[in-house]
UniProtKB/TrEMBL annotation:
Keywords: Cytoplasm. The keyword Acyltransferase does not apply. Residues 6-147 form the UspA domain. Its main location: cytoplasm. Belongs to the universal stress protein A family. It comes from Candidatus Enterococcus murrayae. Pfam families: Usp. CDD domains: USP-like. Transmembrane segments: none annotated. It is found in: Cytoplasm. This is Universal stress protein. Gene3D superfamilies: HUPs.
Length: 151
């Protein structure tokens, strides 16, 4: 019988409930496998260009980077409360889809990507595209989609 031991688990965080649910489940998988959780916040500067913000506006980019650091620190605090501290933070720039499916898994030798199911409605998914859908199709490794818990 073949069993997969996931040692490097990537989870994208954006402050959403879905992403935090995926992160918490990633902690459990990592703890069982004595692996590392890589929490990544991807800053897509093209979105801000589309929204008529200048991609060179350092104030916006600095604020996004500060927000990303705060999200990573929150994840590390949650991990500590959970009793697991093998958590690495990543701030990446570019397409979240490409980063989560290809760039980061290759760079960090990721063997499992965990993503939260999108909270977007059909129109929002059409306009922005679903990161989860792209990752499922294009990822270089296994993917686990975390559905929101029914409460």
């Amino acid at each position: 019988m073949f069993t997969q031991s996931y040692q490097n688990i990537l989870v994208g965080i954006d402050g959403s409930d879905q992403a935090m649910e995926a992160f918490k489940k990633a902690l459990a998988v990592a703890k069982r496998n004595q692996g590392t959780v890589y929490v990544a916040n991807v800053i897509d500067h093209q979105i801000y260009t589309f929204m008529s913000y200048s991609p060179l506006n350092e104030n916006i980019m600095d604020q996004l980077a500060a927000d990303a650091k705060e999200l990573i620190n929150q994840c590390k605090a949650i991990g500590k409360d959970f009793g697991y501290t093998k958590i690495e933070g990543i701030i990446a720039y570019g397409s979240a889809k490409e980063a989560m499916a290809k760039t980061l898994p290759e760079k960090y030798d990721i063997d499992l990507v965990m993503v939260g199911q999108s909270g977007l409605n059909a129109v929002e998914r059409f306009m922005t595209g679903s990161v989860a859908s792209y990752v499922i199709k294009e990822a270089l490794c296994d993917v686990l989609i975390v559905h929101p818990s029914a409460e």
